[in-house]
Amino acid sequence: MRIRCQRLKSTGHLLTLPLPKIESMAATVAVPGAIVHKVLTTNNYEDWSIRVKTYLLAKGLWKVVGSAMEPPRVEDKAEFEAWSKNNAEALHAIHISCGDDTFSFIRDMDTAKAAWNTLEHKLKPARLPKRKDVRSDHESPMDVELQLKDLNEPVVEGINVSSPSTLLNITSHALRY
Prior knowledge:
- This protein is mainly alpha-helical.
- The chain contains eight helices and two strands; from the N terminus they run E-E-H-H-H-H-H-H-H-H.
- Helix 4 (77-96) runs parallel beside helix 6.
């Protein structure tokens, strides 16, 4: 698809420019000035969550999402109205920073906290367990080295390098496997 512009004065030709394919861009990139430069997909939760959380903190809206407190009661009219406004702003920020594939997870939610927690539950990658060190807590590196040396000694003792026929037998046996 091309868009026509005005005629060039020097040649009289129409200037045409190709338009980017908007469908593919809309799935991953937000509009300029948006909350995040890439909308949430199923593959970028960690980066997305940091950016959105920072935005919500800067706007004073994170307390609606990150607080363990329940929303105020409707009877506390002023407090409830303030919370409702902040909740709507935070929920809107989360909504518009989600791609089509992730927005469906939170479409029907009416609190920013529920939306945030749902996205975290569905999209946050599981952490791999920390690698266990080979040595136990009470072993020093020297102990491990001595254990490895002890394992090597029978192999070294079994090879009589002064006898060429023994060395050839071991080498030919090793090459078969």
